[in-house]
Amino acid sequence: MSFTAIIREAFVLSDGKIVLDMSEIEGMPTVGDLVRAGGGAGRIVELGRNSTDGQVVSTRACLTGKEVAPYGGIVVVWRAQPTQALGLQRIEGTADV
Which of 1, 50, 81, 86 is most buried, with most CB under 10 Å away? Predict the structure, then answer.
């Protein structure tokens, strides 16, 4: 498994891509990873970068600098649309082989 996380929020972009805000990330998402969540499947096309430290996965709160559960964001294109709401769903990603 490349990474797992909990989706906190999902935002639909005007081009149909989905931004997933995640927490409790284990591992490291990468562009091209295949992902599954909410009964759907897709591929990561872009990685978010934390505005404070520039990292894909951050472990520091932006205001206090205290350590927090790993969090970050990704942009996904779905091949099979999710059949369940994405908020608070577990997402799993695997490297494209």
Answer: 86
Contacts of 11 (CB under 8 A, 6+ apart): 18, 19, 21
14-43: pLDDT as tens digits: 998 999 999 999 999 999 999 999 888 999
Half-sphere exposure of residue 42: CA atoms within 13 angstroms, side-chain side: 23
Is the whole-model pTM more than 0.85?
A: yes
Do the beta carbons of residue 21 and residue 5 sit within 8 Å? no
Residue 71: Cβ-neighbour burial (10 angstroms; 0-12, 13-18, 19+) = buried
The residue to which tokens 């695997």 are assigned: 94
